[in-house]
Each structure stands twice: as structure tokens, then as C-alpha cells.
Amino acid sequence: MNKERVVELLKELVQIDSESGEEREIADYLFSLFDELELKGFEDDTQEKTGYGAGNLFFTLEGNKNIEPICFMVHMDTVKPGKGVKPEVRDGYMYSDGSTILGSDDKAGVAAVIEAVRTIKESNIPHGDIEVIVTVGEETGLVGAKAFDTSVVKSKIGYAVDGTGQVGTIVNRAPAQNKIEAHIHGKKAHAGIEPEVGVSAINIAAEAISNMTLGRVDDVTTANVGLIKGGEATNIVADNAYILLEARSLEEDKLAKQTAHIESKLKEAAHKLGGEVDVDIDFMYPALHSKEDSDAVKLASDAAVKIDREPNIIALGGGSDGNIFAGQGIDTVILGLGYEEIHTTSERMPLEELYKITELIIKMVELQATK
């Protein structure tokens, strides 16, 4: 591994504007880079479907067909504010200048995968096919991953290089999520003259929420009300209200149970107070669950030990592209990158973690070749 080279690559990547939906420039840059490295691949045709700035990229470093292939997943988009990033390196970290995010989520993952591929080629490290998926729109609902056709993927195991925690962290469980929208309908009336004639949609919303079990529901399930709006003025009994909620669980049967609970409380409140409610449920992504003795977890754990990191196998409360690929039948885990304070202008990337994640990827490929 060339430490200076991977740092310079990360600097280059973070300076390419690529907020979600505006990925064209970085997609073109990465396409050229993979082509220069003589990887075979393509940009898929999902841009028209997603409406985002580019399609997803899929490239393969072809290897020994007697060695099982391995897949690495990263994303090219960033959150806002991510335009005009000016990276600074000091005290063993890379920062932005404080006016923007840095974008190490997930450009550190992209840089590490690319440097690992370069090193594997330069050092003639034995390997099977190494597949790389680079998605768009991860930060705004895993949009690119959801649209990606995984039938092109040969690998049975995959690694989303986009996780929290220091290198050595292996996320083998992440929750499924439902988004729940409630449109509540009441009846208008003058709030000062004849309030008893009206049916307050806001009162229905309050009644429903007060009867819901929210927050930490159990050890694997959470639920939250994220947005409430409705009404027009204080002198009008509100005939409309809108609630946006979510439910998450590591176990999809418990997700279904919590979602049904929320829906029932909405309908009970509407019936009790004389209104109506329309509930829309959107299944955002499936749960990720790779058993601790799975090939994916074992390979990452063994590689972590080889690079002098203690494997830390954890469950995570958030979703990622890894959830989507796991749902498509690829045994997927999420690898910790070590980035800090992501999605803020205080974001920073420890250079030692950048080196270590690159080293981990190389070591995983080496170990896969010896199986």
C-alpha cells in the first residue's frame, strides 16, 4: 500500500462536488480511473429511473476463477453542505476547512478500495474476481442500490465499506425500516363560535401519538415520530393533519408488529374522535443479518486479526446499501471506516484508519485466495 497515494486520492475525491443527485462529475472521474486500472465494467442504466446525476458503477478486477470472488460496495454521493470542499491535513487527520463536510462518508471507502486494487495489481497478490459496486443516492434513501441489478454480481459475500467505528468493526446486523405516513381528516368549524361542530385532526393526531409505544420499543426495535403538521389558524378547528413516522427493527416480524401497532392507534383515535385517517406504509429496506459464523464475518474477522485489530462484531441501528445487497441474497456485512463526526462541518478522517481499512481489504483478498 502507498500511504501517500491513498491520501492524495482521498483529497482529489472530496474536492469533486457530489451531493446526492449531482453525481455526474465523480461518476465520470471514477469510470476513467477504473478504466485506467484495466478493470472491466460499466455504468448501469438506472439514471433515468432514479433521476439522480448518474447511474451506478460496476467494475471487476478479474482473477483466478478457482478462487471465490469477493465484492466491495461503496457510494459516491455525499450529504450537504458538500460543495467546494477544501481538504486540510494536520495532526494525523484530514479535515475540511470548516465551511463544508469533508465527505469521508463514503469517499474514504472509495479511496481505500481503489488503493487496495492498485496494490493487489502492483504486488501480484493472488486473487479471484474482485467486484466493486459504486452507488449513487445512498444518503437519500439508498436510491442507487435499490435500482441496481444484482444479477451481474458473482460474489456470494460482500462488504459495504461504509460503517461506523474504527477499522476492525464488523456490522453483521442492521435493521429493516418502514416509513409510515398518516393523512388525518377532520371537519372544519369556527373555533370560537361552534367548536363542538368541528372534528380536530390535530386532536386525533395527539390522541394517536399519546397511545403509541415509541422510542426504544424493545432490544431490537425502535419507533419515532419525525414530523407533524396541520391546521390553518387558531380560530379554525383543523380539518387536516399529517404525521410522518418510522419504525425499525433487526427482526422483520417485530417491525411488522410495531408498524401494525402504530397504524391501529391512528385508526382508533380517528374512530374515537369522529375523523378519518389514511395510512401509507413504505418498506424502505430489509434487515441485514449475517451470522457470526458466516463466511463473510469470518473472513473480515480473520483479516482484522492479521492487521493487528481486534474484531468487534456489532449490530447497528441504521440502514445502508449493505441492507439492500443483503436482501438480494449476497451475504453482506458492513466494515467500520473510522471516520469521525460525519455529516457535520467538524468531520475528520484519521489517516491511520484510512491506511488500516485499505490494509484490511488487501488482507481479506489475500485470505480469500488461500481458502
Automatic annotation (TrEMBL):
GO terms for molecular function: metal ion binding; metallopeptidase activity; tripeptide aminopeptidase activity. This is Tripeptide aminopeptidase. One of its GO terms (biological process) is proteolysis. Its cofactor is Zn(2+); a divalent metal cation. PROSITE patterns: ARGE_DAPE_CPG2_2. It comes from Nosocomiicoccus ampullae. Residues 181-271 form the Peptidase M20 dimerisation domain. The active site is at 138 (proton acceptor). Zn(2+) 2 binds at residues 105, 139. Its EC number is 3.4.11.4. Zn(2+) 1 binds at residues 105, 162. Keywords: Aminopeptidase, Hydrolase, Metal-binding, Metalloprotease, Protease, Zinc. The lineage of its organism: Bacteria, Bacillati, Bacillota, Bacilli, Bacillales. Belongs to the peptidase M42 family. Binds 2 divalent metal cations per subunit.
